[in-house]
Amino acid sequence: FCNAGLLELSLGKFRNVLLNQTNPVEAVIRNIASNVTVIIFQVHAQQSDVVISFDKNPSVNSSGTGVDKGLVSILRPQQTICTWYLWSLDASQVLSTAISIPYMEKDPIPGGCNLEFDLEVDPNIYLDYTVVDIHIKFAPANLGYARGANPPPCDSGTGQNSRWRLHYDVYQYFLPENELSEMVLMSHIRKMSEVQSIKANGIKMLTLTADDKTNVYFSSLPGQGVIYNVIVWDPLWNTSAAYIPVHTYACSFADLVDNCSSLSKLSTKVFFTALAVLGLFTCFFGHRFWKTDLFFMGFIFTGFFFFVFITRVTGLGYDVRLILTAVAGTIGGLFLVASWWRFGSVLLCVFIIGLVLGFLFSSMVFFTPLGDYRVFRDDVVFWVTFSSVALMIPVLFVGCPRILNILASGIVGSYAVILAIACYVYTSLAYITLDLLRRVLNDYFSRAYTNVPFQRNDFIILSVWIMLALSGVTVQLRRERSEVPFPPHPYLTWKRERERRSTNVLDPSHHIPPLRDRIHNKLLHIKELFQKEQPAGERTPLLL
């Protein structure tokens, strides 16, 4: 660590430094080699903004402010020393890490053709986030050049001798799940600062050419640390340079409620915990308790579409929408049970149940890297493909509805448990359905890349899901193999029994007294239990 006024740096070496508001730190690099033409100096902090400047008195076009900031120093002939100044905007000390990276004359210069931001040469990546998506943008790069030479013009042409030949590779890197400490960030951001380290550790998401806009969208993962960076590549010289890495947790450390440490609302925890209890019961006993299974699937089916509807057409708060969704889901579940009781259409009920399983299966398909294919950016292509995959499940099992119902109750019921776990412990498995909900609710979510981390917690919770689903399906298949496929139609059974009792005088149930008389007799029997026993008097005859 360094917290003195002077910070001696070596090219390519990280140094941790404590910054404060009152005493700027002077960062110095000496003995720069003559073949180095550009130095990119950068500093990173977790949540407090820091200032990086060429001068002690910063101006708009000579300094940058943020948690991940850097400056490009174009070296003059014979120059061997570079100096920058650092301080924080927070009154307390701020832990940061700094590094300077050298580049040669054939290496491209990140941000060298900046026309949008304040710095003349801006190597920074600018990041904004919402609860739905993350947006990064950066300035185009320029070709490298020797010390003392004039920079190549940015808009003189679009041929192979101009900056239009450059390509941009966008990389993503996930921090360990449930890790919000400063030291974890400092150790991992080093892996995303230099070209070779980025290629070795990051996930390459896409490649942009000079014809593409230099901005990209990703799905937001609140509470999960993510680092982004861009490598600009010159195909003519086969040289590369890295922009300034930028990180986000898609949440606020400062908020008292719903901060990075406690993201799930109480209403969300109550809702999904109750759903998990019902789902766990359905997982193991759904087919035996047919009406409970119908209620559970009807609740999910109705609740999902109702939540989408009220979110689209109203401006109600989240808690109110969740309560109304619970009410609507309950009504939908009871309606499905009542429909089966009255009309007895097993195939219709199983089709709806299969549709719920189909939607979950289709969401799982698009949860894989397949979902980030460019062809699915088109909403028409996406929804036609998604619906076709979802409908495939009930169509394939149309000849064996009992197996379809057992599979649906086991898989969907166990996934309800996973959603409840996600309210207390971060897991990427929750985004199987959450990304689908985001795409339905947000018109522009189709442009976002939906890659998520899959780390130790996810493997454990995935194992729990698989174990629950397999156990539930196996138990139900073994228990129900000698039973009738589905319960008899309850309304017809009740109607048939009523007709039998009214016509068959030999049936003992035909002679059952009316309901009013039976209630009256019961009340008399209860009354006799509380009556005091009367004395019986003399029990033997008198002797005369």
TrEMBL record:
The keyword Transmembrane helix applies. One of its GO terms (cellular component) is plasma membrane. Its main location: membrane. It is found in: Membrane. Residues 273-477 form the TM7S3/TM198-like domain. GO terms for biological process: negative regulation of programmed cell death. The keyword Membrane applies. Keywords: Membrane, Transmembrane, Transmembrane helix. Pfam families: Ig_TM7SF3_N, TM7S3_TM198. It is a multi-pass membrane protein. The chain crosses the membrane at residues 270-287, 294-314, 320-338, 345-368, 380-400, 412-434, 459-477. InterPro entries: TM7S3/TM198-like_dom (IPR025256), TM7SF3 (IPR042502). This is Transmembrane 7 superfamily member 3. It comes from Balearica regulorum gibbericeps (East African grey crowned-crane).
